[in-house]
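Structure first, sequence second, as always.
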């Protein structure tokens, strides 16, 4: 699947902090499938800018942005482990605004992560998804993620306990020669 016409995918920069924070806040309000509830998100764009600056200099972390008509419509972040034993593993978080959902934006962001990961020494991309978020889980499977485990009743969402699936995708180790 190709990215829809008019959608640009690129790496985030610290100057994207305000726009990224706005997208995150919108997602927190639009859906209960994101981990944070609206009042748990930082209100300080300087915190986001500092995080983006740290990510920019980390070899094993990235934030990819999707924008259309000059505004952000989604993002995908991969944060690599700090310690050597986890350095080749990155935790993925993705969010696409409802207005842009179902048009290939999420697939495009995952494709960018797939290109980025092996070039930056990442062997294992992992993510979690609420088990009842069947649409997202299906997307993750379509782009190559497999369910590796299930945490039963580990999240309190919309007044009830829900399961979370652990999913991952493996990449070949770079050829040392």
């Amino acid at each position: 699947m190709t990215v829809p016409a008019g959608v640009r995918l690129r790496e985030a920069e610290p100057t994207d902090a305000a726009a990224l924070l706005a997208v995150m806040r919108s997602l927190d309000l639009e859906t209960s499938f994101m981990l944070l509830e609206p009042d748990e998100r930082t209100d300080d764009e300087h915190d986001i800018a500092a995080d983006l600056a740290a990510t920019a200099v980390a070899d094993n972390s990235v934030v990819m942005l999707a924008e259309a008509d000059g505004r952000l419509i989604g993002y995908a972040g991969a944060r690599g482990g700090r310690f050597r034993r986890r350095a080749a593993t990155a935790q993925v978080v993705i969010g696409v605004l409802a207005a842009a959902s179902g048009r290939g934006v999420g697939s495009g962001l995952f494709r960018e992560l797939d290109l980025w990961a092996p070039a930056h020494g990442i062997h294992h991309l992992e993510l979690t998804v609420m088990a009842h978020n069947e649409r997202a889980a299906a997307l993750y499977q379509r782009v190559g993620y497999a369910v590796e485990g299930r945490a039963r009743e580990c999240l309190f969402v919309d007044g009830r306990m829900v399961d979370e699936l652990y999913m991952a995708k493996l990449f070949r180790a770079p050829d040392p020669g």
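Margin note: The helical segments are 17-30, 45-57, 105-119, 134-142.
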